[in-house]
Amino acid sequence: MSGPLLKVENLTKHYPLGTGFLNKTIPVVRAVEDVSFSVEAGETLCIVGESGCGKSTVARLLMRLVEPTAGRVLIDGTDIAGLKKNALRAWRRRMQMVFQDPYSSLNPRLTVEKIITEPVENFERLSRKQRKALAAELLRKVGMSPEMMNRLPSELSGGQRQRLGIARALALQPSLIIADEAVSALDVSVQAQILNLLLDLQQQMGIAFVFISHDLGVVEHIGHRVAVMYLGRIVELAPCEALFAKPVHPYTEALIAAAPIPDPTRVRLEAPVEGEVPSPINPPSGCAFHPRCPIAVERCRIDVPPLVPMADGRVVACHVRAPVTDLLEQSNVIAGDQLALVSESHSSISG
Ligand SMILES: Nc1ncnc2c1ncn2[C@@H]1O[C@H](COP(=O)(O)OP(=O)(O)OP(=O)(O)O)[C@@H](O)[C@H]1O
After folding, report:
1. pLDDT digits 0-9 by tens, 49-90
2. Nearest residue to 166 via CA among 121, 220, 205
3. Which segments constitute the ABC transporter domain (predicted)?
C-alpha cells in the first residue's frame, strides 16, 4: 500500500455561537483552522498546545464525531465523509479512540468482560466461550489478569481502567488509535506504565497513534513527530527529537521553556510565554501568536504565515524564523514537492 494511512487536508471547524436572528451574522468559535497533516502506518503523531487550541476538536473531526466546516479526512486515500453504510462500518473498525477519563467512558454497570468484547459483538455474534477467550486475550495484551473479567469498573484503579479502555480500543484490531489526553488523569508512575504499554503494542501490532496531549514530557517519550497547535492552527510540525533539540517557532520555544524539565542537566533557555491565549471567536490578525511573540515584526500583524518546509524535514509558520522568500531563494536545495507546499497552502504538511 502506498501513501499515508491518515491524511488530513485543510481541516477547519467553526462552532457557531447561537442560531442567528433576522439574517444577522452569527459569531463563530474558530476551533480548528486549515489544519493538514498525515500519519504513516505504525507512526505516532503527537498534537500539543495549550488548553483551547483545538486539539480535541481535531480528534473529534478524525473520529467523525463532529462534521468539518471545511477540509477532508482520508483513510488510505478514501475521504471518510463520502463513506456509505458498509464502508463506514469497515472504517469504524480501523479507527478507535482512547479517552482521557476512562471512568466516564466506561459503562459502570458492565463487567470488564462485557466492556472489552462489546465492540466486537457490535459486528459479529460471539459464543460465551469465544467471548471469554477474547476477553482473556485482550486483558493479557494490556498486562491485566484474565481473573479481572468479572469485575466492574468501580473495582479497578485508575491505571487499570485506562488499560481496560485500551483493551477495548484494541478489540477490533485497529490500524489507528486516537488517544486524547489518554494519560493526563493518571499518576506519573502509572502514566509511564501506560505509555510503555502503548509503545509495546505499537511494536507488536504496528498500530499508528494520533496522541493528543498538553504534556511535553509525555510527547517527548512517545512521539515520532509532533504538531504544535496555537489557536486552531499548526505552527510547527517536526520530528520529535528535532523539535525538542531545537524548536524553531517562538511559540514552540516558549512551550518547551515553560515545561517542567525532568532532566536536571538540561538548561531552560528562555522565559515561558507571557500573556493570555486570545479568544478563538475574535483571533488576532496575521499570525495569531504575534501579540505574545517576542520577535514579532510588522508583517506578523498583517499576514497569516504559511507553513514553510525547512531543510531538516520540519515545517514552520513564522515570518521571522521561516520566511518564504529565503526558502524560495534557496530553491536549488529544496525538493520540488516542498516548493509546491510553500506556495500552495498555509498548512500543507507532508508525511
Ligand atoms: N461544541 C462546541 N461549541 C462551541 N465551542 C466549542 C465547542 N467545542 C469546543 N469549543 C471551543 O473550541 C476551542 C477549541 O476547543 P478544544 O476542546 O478542541 O481545545 P483543546 O486544545 O482540546 O483544549 P483542552 O486541552 O482544554 O481540551 C475552544 O475555544 C473551545 O471552547
Report:
1. 988 999 999 999 999 889 999 999 999 898 988 888 888 888
2. 205
3. 6-256
The answer, yes or no, to whether any atom of ligand 1 lies below 6 A from the CB of 55, is: yes
31 C-alpha to center of ligand 1: Å?
Answer: 6
∠ CA 321-325-331 to the nearest 5 degrees? Answer: 105
ipTM for this prediction: 0.97
**Distance from residue 255's CA to the centre of ligand 1 (Å):** 19
Asked if residue 15 has its Cβ within 6 Å of ligand 1, the reply is yes
Atom of ligand 1 lying closest to residue 279 CA: 29
CA distances from 242 to 44, 271, 291 (A): 15, 20, 26
User: Which residue type occupies 173?
Assistant: Q
Query: Of the candidates 330, 345, 311, which has an alpha carbon nearest to the alpha carbon of residue 10?
Result: 345
Q: What's the CA gap between 70 and 212, in Å, rounded? A: 21
| Contact by Cβ (8 Å): 177, 209 | yes
Predicted TM-score of the model (pTM): 0.87
Point out the ligand 1 atom lying closest to the alpha carbon of residue 56.
Answer: 22
Instruction: Give the model confidence (pLDDT) of 9-43 as tens digits.
Output: 999 999 998 776 666 778 899 999 999 999 999 99
Residue 306 Cα to ligand 1 middle (Å) = 23
Does ligand 1 come within 6 angstroms of the Cβ of 191? no
- The closest alpha carbon to 208, from 169, 161, 265, 252, belongs to 169
